[in-house]
Write a structure and sequence with these properties.
Elements (H helix, E strand, L loop, with lengths): L5 H5 L7 E3 L5 E3 L4 H5 L3 H11 L15 H5 L6 H12 L8 H6 L6 H25 L11 H28 L7 H9 L8 H11 L3 H7 L5 H27 L5 H24 L31
Length: 310
């Protein structure tokens, strides 16, 4: 080996930092062979599991009992959740193919889960506030913790059972495709080419309950007329927006009119049940004061005269 001189130390040398590919672009090789070889096989296996096999997203082939399976249902950004909440509260905001192109392609559970949980505690807290206002002056009033379980049972059953029933009815009563090609193309354009999935219906119904969060706070106002106006307003906005999203799929059913009426009645029953059970003060008549009868002392006078002795 030749000794290193001062000229060799001060001279510049070229190193192959840039590796040209077969195309016109260049790529910088930042991973040295030593660094690439230092990655353990277990780490490579973990990265392959996280990214999915064959380029598939995570949770594609995962078991139903693993967290990776449910990860795809919560893979949604904030703007999408805000847009779906606004669509569930504002009628005619959704386009005709909203269910097919926006919900069916990515039905999330993130928004519905948070909306349901928020509504449960909002109704329980607001219901106790309404009870406190109804019992003003009663020093023996206590917080009713059972309202949390009552509201949770009603909301969760409604969010799961009603979409499940609707999904079964749409599957059973859907008409076959029309023979007219033009009408068939119109149905596919409107998003009615096939029945919506159960997950899509649960997602839509979960978002439809968002309007009852501010309404439940306003229900604490102990005026019966205002409470019923809030019920009508909430039902109208929420059910109208819900039908705007679902109407392309409902049109394919043989019983579309009855399905629309059933959706409206179920939404009204839910809102009216919330208001009457948790917030409405019962109309109690004031107790009628019965007059106190004073005991009257009766004096019996013996008017019989003693018989005269003969």
């Amino acid at each position: 080996m030749e000794p290193t001189t001062a000229d060799d130390l001060l001279s510049f040398k070229e190193f192959p930092l840039i590796q040209e590919t077969s195309g016109s672009s260049a790529q910088i090789n930042i991973n040295s062979p030593q660094r690439s070889a230092s990655i353990s096989p277990s780490r490579q296996q973990d990265e392959g599991t996280a990214s999915g096999q064959d380029g598939q997203p995570a949770g594609k082939g995962a078991s139903i009992f693993s967290f990776e399976y449910y990860q795809k249902f919560f893979d949604v950004d904030t703007m999408t959740v805000v847009d779906r909440i606004a669509t569930a509260m504002i009628p005619k905001r959704a386009p005709p193919n909203y269910l097919e192109l926006n919900i069916a392609t990515n039905p999330d559970m993130y928004g519905p889960v948070w909306i349901v949980l928020t509504l449960i505690f909002t109704i329980a807290i607001s219901g106790n506030m309404a009870s406190y206002l109804q019992n003003t002056g009663n020093h023996h009033w206590r917080y009713n913790f059972h309202l949390v379980s009552y509201s949770a049972t009603a909301i969760i059953l409604y969010t799961v059972l009603v979409p499940s029933a609707l999904w079964g009815i749409l599957k059973w009563s859907s008409r076959p495709h029309e023979l007219d090609i033009e009408d068939s193309n119109d149905e596919e354009t409107a998003g009615g080419s096939r029945s919506p999935s159960l997950l899509s219906l649960i997602c839509v119904y979960g978002y439809s309950l968002a309007i009852y969060i501010p309404v439940s706070v306003l229900w604490t106002v102990q005026v019966s007329l205002i409470q019923w106006l809030l019920v009508i307003t909430g039902v109208f906005l929420s059910s109208f927006a819900l039908l705007t999203v679902l109407i392309p799929a409902i049109k394919r059913s043989k019983y579309s009119l009855f399905i629309v009426l059933a959706i409206e009645l179920a939404h009204f029953a839910l809102a009216a049940g919330f208001m009457l059970y948790f917030f409405h003060a019962p109309d109690t008549e004031p107790p009628v004061e019965t007059p106190m009868h004073k005991p009257i002392a009766s004096v019996v006078v013996n008017t019989t005269m003693p018989a005269k002795q003969m």
